[in-house]
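Sequence only, no structure available. Ideas?
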Amino acid sequence: MNAEQYRRHARRYLARARQMASPENRAIMIDLATRWMRLAERAVATRPVQQQQQQQVQPKKDDKKDSE
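Reply:
I predicted one. Tokens follow.
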């Protein structure tokens, strides 16, 4: 899953929390939403490393186009 998918899950749990009459159930839904948001944050934190690796590959492709 990527960060946006985790955020989507979090939004769903927040929407469910708004529909809950019970404060206890609302708190559970908010807790679950918070956990999904933490997963999204972790996904974003690890993404720059992957992007840096891709960026190192991309200039090599551009260099080949310039030399043609």
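Residues 3-67 form one domain.
Hope that gets you unstuck.
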